[in-house]
Design a protein that fits this description.
Helices cover 47% and strands 16% of the residues. The protein starts with a strand and ends with a helix.
Length: 275
């Protein structure tokens, strides 16, 4: 079986979800994690996880949402969701994004630090976003600096949708974080080289699925079923079987949550993966 460690299925309308989940089961994707991007989004991730046994939720404020969506009450609102919901396993999606206006950077830094502090308070791992472009090259080091300063290794987590250098990957691994590969692995030679070289027991898989109306046909939208394509590519790169990739990346997900305070959820996840 496979796990999609990061999606935004909460952004789909309800009438799409059953078909999306059926297609994922056909592709042997047994468990799917949702990542909140705003308070309302996080509320919906928690709601959907309560409705579907194979969905697990994360709550958090995405860095590109911080500038307009963070108030003095936001952290308390996220904590309230955590206290009320029974199937939240991560603080997600949080982090830094250097491709947007520098005016947002102070707000991003503050929100990132506060959400790491929340993760440490509730003993849940973080799923973090770090994005740079040609005009902001080298900024991943800033993300890593904040992770160190806020002692994020105490809860661990995942660098989501990894597209950075081997140097960045090594620093993440040194901090005890997992590396998550999505569909960019199918096309980027440098990323394939990194995926070949880092330990398999440090890798998880994802699709970062969200509605994509900019694509010409609905069937081209990325969905959790496509994590199978990522697994096949990783197996090819490493010259191992897809079954070994599936088994090890699934065990990695279980290990990620093995120290989480919500141990009953770890057991729920283990049960889902055993079915």
């Amino acid at each position: 079986m496979l796990v999609d460690s990061h999606t935004h299925l909460e952004q789909y309308p309800d009438y799409e979800l059953d078909a999306i989940l059926a297609r994922s089961r056909d592709a042997r994707v047994q468990a799917i994690f949702l990542a909140g991007t705003t308070v309302l989004d996080s509320q919906r991730t928690a709601h959907l996880a309560s409705r579907y046994d194979n969905l697990f939720a994360g709550v958090g404020i995405h860095p590109t949402e911080v500038f307009s969506g963070w108030t003095p009450h936001t952290l308390g609102e996220l904590e309230a969701i955590l206290n009320k919901a029974s199937r939240v396993l991560a603080i997600s999606e949080i982090g830094l994004d250097f491709t947007v206006s520098p005016d947002s950077f102070p707000s991003q830094y503050s929100a990132f630090r506060q959400q790491i502090e929340l993760a440490r308070k509730v003993d849940l791992p973080i799923i973090f976003h770090s994005r740079e472009d040609s005009s902001s090259e080298g900024k991943h080091d800033e993300t890593l600096r904040l992770l160190r300063e806020e002692r994020a290794w105490e809860v661990g987590g995942v660098m989501h949708y990894f597209q950075a250098s081997r140097h960045v990957a090594d620093q993440c691994l040194d901090l005890g974080f997992y590396i998550s590969f999505g569909k960019p692995l199918l096309r980027l030679d440098s990323l394939q080289e990194t995926a070949r070289e880092i330990p398999l027991d440090s890798i998880v898989l994802e699709t970062d699925s969200y509605p994509q109306p900019f694509k010409s046909r609905r069937e081209l939208w990325t969905e959790p079923k496509d994590v199978l394509d990522v697994a096949i590519k990783l197996a090819d790169i490493r010259r191992i079987t897809v079954e070994e990739v599936a088994y090890t990346t699934t065990q990695n997900m279980l290990r990620l949550y093995s120290k989480a305070s919500r141990l009953h959820l770890k057991e729920m996840l283990r049960k889902v993966l055993a079915e």
